From TrEMBL:
PANTHER family: SHORT COILED COIL PROTEIN, SHORT COILED-COIL PROTEIN. Keywords: Coiled coil, Cytoplasm, Golgi apparatus, Membrane. The keyword Kinase does not apply. Homodimer. Interacts with ARL1, ARL2 and ARL3. Directly interacts with FEZ1 and UVRAG. The interaction with UVRAG is reduced by amino acid starvation, but the complex is stabilized in the presence of FEZ1. Interacts with NRBF2. Positive regulator of amino acid starvation-induced autophagy. It holds the Pfam family DUF2205. It is a peripheral membrane protein. The keyword Cytoplasm applies. Residues 41-75 form a coiled coil. This is Short coiled-coil protein. It comes from Marmota monax. Its main location: cytoplasm. It is found in: Cytoplasm, Cytosol; Golgi apparatus membrane; Golgi apparatus, trans-Golgi network. GO terms for cellular component: cytosol; Golgi membrane; trans-Golgi network.
């Protein structure tokens, strides 16, 4: 029984000395994994932020184009009315009654 006890103590001591090495290697692997995970998260966050800025820029551009479109529509209406008024005031664009001119 003493031999068993003695050998188990030796095994226990060996496993204790082996354990920190194993834990250290495991910790290094975990640290490396965490580092890769952190880098991936950082990359994704930066990508999301970049996409948000792009969306904001596109949204502002859409608003500007809508505003310009409304302005141009209004100008077109004014010009259309102006042309209509000119045409109605000019005898060149008046409809002629050919029968009345012949008489």
């Amino acid at each position: 029984p003493q031999t068993e006890d003695h050998s188990s103590r030796i095994l226990h001591r060996k496993s204790k000395s082996f354990l920190p090495k194993m834990m250290s290697a495991d910790m290094d692997a975990v640290d490396a994994e965490n580092q890769v995970e952190l880098e991936e998260k950082t990359r994704l966050i930066n990508q999301v932020l970049e996409l948000q800025h792009t969306l904001e820029d596109l949204s502002a551009r859409v608003d500007a184009v809508k505003e310009e479109n409304l302005k141009l529509k209004s100008e077109n209406q004014v010009l259309g009315q102006y042309i209509e008024n000119l045409m109605s005031a000019s005898s060149v664009f008046q409809t002629t009654d050919t029968k009345s001119k012949r008489k």
